[in-house]
Amino acid sequence: MSSSLSRFSTLLLFLHVALLIAPPTTQFFFLPLAKGSDLIQTTCKKTPHYNLCLSTLQSNPDSSNADVPGLALIASDALLANASDTLDYIHGLLKQSPEVHLQKALANCAELYIPIVKFSLPQAIEALRNGHFGFAKYGISDAAKEAEACEKGFGGVKSPLTDRNALVNDLSGVAVAILNLLKG
Ligand SMILES: *[C@@H]1O[C@H](CO)[C@@H](O)[C@H](O)[C@H]1NC(C)=O
What we know:
Blueprint: H1 2-21, H2 37-45, H3 50-58, H4 68-95, H5 100-129, H6 133-152, H7 162-179
Helix pairs in contact: 2-3, 4-5, 4-7, 5-6, 6-7
The structure holds 2-acetamido-2-deoxy-beta-D-glucopyranose.
Residues 55-56, 78, 81-82, 85, 167 line the site of 2-acetamido-2-deoxy-beta-D-glucopyranose.
């Protein structure tokens, strides 16, 4: 009895040490290996925007077979698609020669969105694919900061980008929250 108990506690100790010394990127293998809609729902519940998270992940058929890093990738791809679409929209508005205050604010937004569309987000997505979740978080949370700065730049002028900036901000929040479930 006492020897099986001590064998049991040795096993617990071993598991504990194994978890402590496991390389960070392998730790998610210890998470429940659930997939599909259960995993999507439990994951989205841990984000600040449940409905947006759900609709974003479910709109991509890959999500039904994805693990948590896969869901983070789907959310990040949706974020890049939205940021890129917003940048195109800004360029379209600039071509309509808006009045000077609006033009300045839009040009400021283009300057903020270009680096996230061309560099931060693609780099973050590449890092995510390689299991560097901590690094990925920088680029993805940067998107929210730039969207916020863009929106603030309108000052007294009515922003034509409010909904788009809010969506980029919220999608960034969803992707970061999913990344927070992972180590590395
Ligand atoms: C932006 O994200 C929303 C929510 O996930 C999605 O419905 C929409 O299709 C995305 N827009 C683009 C251009 O990808």
